[in-house]
Specification:
alpha+beta; twelve-stranded antiparallel beta sheet; 9 helices; 12 strands; globular
Length: 350
């Protein structure tokens, strides 16, 4: 009969394995504690709030291109954190010249920031030539928007219960004209030595000259190949791609007034010229002029809910009409006549 004798090595391995098994609950407990600490720790500040907490030396900005870029591309959310309740007004004129008659477009942008910084109420509009544009409100945490101004005969405001991110994007779109200019000119906008220091509406400001600097050596990211449909991109996409690929900054000049305390641009005026030399096509020219002001309110504005607005739509009218023909209301799986309860269920699901 063969005896089953365990060697000392096997006994050692058995003891070590058992010790490891007994140690597992302890490790899991430590991991759980670390996870709970991360989950229930104070939330990180919003990017705009964190950026606004960083001091910027406006008087020395001309010495540091990174500080210049921060000042010229500052977002509306960060500006509202640095200044509080304020108003932004800007006019941007685009004049495109090629073989045919010149085409000119004028944009008028406005943003009114209420108290509360990045989380506060605001009203933003962008009015483009021929009365086309958008309007968006955020009031008491509720979002309202229209793609043209209701007062000019366009569609009325509609509440956007499921599209709060749209308001944030539209706020920056209306505010970000100076940053767009910086990007269009390949990040080459630079500010010179201070021209002088003056007072603007009780605030100390530094006046700088704005100019076109030398091309910068920017390291290109290794991006994956662009995905295009089988039939190729549409004509609008091809036109935009050609513009960004072949545009070349020619000149730019202007002037800005920077708040000495917060480094926010309170006034700016600039005009520039881009040439677009696409192979096989006539040389085109894009002239841009920009004027913008940011003013701080002595008394913070208050926002009231609009008197007239349309409720949010759970489904487009066309889809809702088709479902109604088969006896279904706007709520999923509900018969006509139960629309109210269905809407409440849909709203709760989002």
């Amino acid at each position: 009969m063969t005896s089953r004798v365990r060697s000392p090595t096997w006994q050692v391995l058995t003891v070590v394995g058992a010790a490891g098994i007994l140690a597992v609950p302890g490790c899991a407990s430590r991991d759980d504690s670390a996870a709970k600490q991360r989950i229930f720790s104070p939330a990180d500040p919003l990017p705009a709030t964190a950026a606004a907490s960083q001091p910027l030396n406006a008087a020395e900005a001309w010495k540091d291109t990174k500080v210049q870029a921060r000042i010229l591309t500052m977002t509306g959310a960060e500006v509202s954190e640095r200044l509080g309740a304020c108003r932004y007004d800007a006019t941007v004129t685009w004049r495109w010249t090629s073989t045919g008659p010149p085409v000119a477009v004028v944009e008028r942008r406005k943003v009114v920031f209420g108290p509360g910084g990045v989380s506060g109420d605001f009203w933003a509009t962008q009015d483009i030539s021929e009365s086309w544009g958008f309007e968006v409100w955020r009031i008491h945490g509720r979002t309202f928007g229209a793609n043209t101004f209701g007062a000019q005969g366009g569609p009325p405001l509609r509440e956007r219960r499921r599209d709060h991110g749209m308001a944030i994007q539209m706020r920056q779109l209306a505010f970000g004209a100076l940053g767009e200019l910086f990007e269009l000119f390949d990040s080459r906008l630079v500010i010179s030595k201070p021209l002088d220091t003056r007072t603007l509406k009780g605030r100390s400001v530094i006046r700088y000259r704005l100019a076109l600097g030398e091309p910068r050596n920017v390291e290109k990211l290794a991006l994956p190949p662009l995905l295009v449909p089988k039939g190729g991109p549409d004509e609008t996409t091809r036109r935009r791609s050609r513009f960004w690929e072949h545009k070349r900054p020619v000149d730019l000049e202007g002037e800005i007034l920077v708040d000495a305390k917060t480094a926010v641009v309170l006034q700016a005026k600039a005009s520039g010229h881009l040439a677009v030399n696409t192979p096989g096509e006539p040389i085109a020219s894009l002239e841009i002029s920009y004027e913008g002001t940011t003013s701080v309110y002595d008394a913070a504005p208050t926002f009231d809910l609009p008197e007239f607005y349309e409720p949010d739509e759970d489904r487009p009218d066309g889809i809702a009409a088709a479902l109604s023909r088969f006896g279904f209301g706007r709520g999923s799986g509900t018969k006509a006549g139960d629309d109210d309860s269905a809407d409440e269920n849909d709203e709760g699901a989002h």
